[in-house]
Specification:
The protein is mostly beta strands and 214 residues long. It has one domain. Helix content is 0%, strand content 44%. The strands form six sheets. Strands 1, 18, 19 and 20 form a four-stranded mixed sheet that branches. It has a four-stranded antiparallel sheet with strand order 2-3-4-7, with no helix packed on it. The radius of gyration is 19 Å and the shape is globular.
Length: 214
């Protein structure tokens, strides 16, 4: 089980020359539109060998990287196209906004921002996402999420009390629990997590680094 060490600062600049190396095997870059719309806004991205996953201002979705060959015997139609699945979830007729997503062993986690904050797990090849965490609070706003390994993950958001909001899982995202403020440093006056489209949190070794602001 990994320990959690969080350091909150206004800006974080760090480099790990042994951790990340630029690949020299990339010879070609292909650009393909997933969806074009004047109101469409992608806020988070992740991917594996099969799909590109994204979170947006009103839904989260997945786009297949490889074309699927299908034969419909009823209509006698043969198709060869890339599948695009879109999941729109609403509350009180308003769509939830998703700024934090994470792919873990083919499963997708998507976390909405404001009240209510909802975290969904979409199992590999499943058609419908499963709600694994919900938090109802006028101040709730989750910004980012990351996993240490296939079992343990963490998400962070703005304070709802006098500390940053932090939820963790130890069972592959099946359940999540919020850390008590008694176990965290108090938030500074006006401090909040930085809404940077899921990029203000990272894991280096056993340590979780988070950028905050005000």
């Amino acid at each position: 089980m990994r320990s959690i060490t969080l350091i909150f600062i206004l800006l974080i600049f760090f480099g790990c020359k042994d951790e990340y190396k630029r690949s020299s095997n990339i010879t070609q870059v292909e650009i393909e539109d997933i969806l074009t719309d004047s109101t469409f806004s992608i806020r988070a991205l992740d991917f594996n060998d099969e799909y590109i996953f994204y979170g947006s201002s009103d839904h989260f979705g997945m786009k297949a990287l490889q074309s699927a060959f299908k034969i419909d015997l009823t209509e006698v139609v043969i198709s060869d196209q890339k599948v695009h699945n879109k999941y729109q979830i609403n509350n009180d007729s308003l769509y939830l906004h998703f700024r934090a997503i994470e792919e873990v062993n083919g499963n997708l986690f998507a976390l909405s921002t404001g009240n209510p904050a909802r975290l969904y797990k979409l199992y590999r090849k499943a058609r419908k996402p499963k709600l694994v965490y919900e938090e109802v609070n006028e101040k709730v706003f989750y910004d980012s999420m990351v996993f240490w390994n296939e079992n343990e993950g963490i998400a962070i958001g703005d304070p709802t009390e006098d500390c940053m909001s932090i939820i963790i899982t130890r069972d592959s995202g099946e359940s999540w629990s919020k850390i008590s403020c008694s176990d965290l440093p108090p938030a500074l006056d006006g401090e909040a997590a930085f809404a940077a489209s899921d990029t203000n949190i990272t894991i280096v070794g056993d340590h979780t680094w988070v950028a905050t602001g005000g």
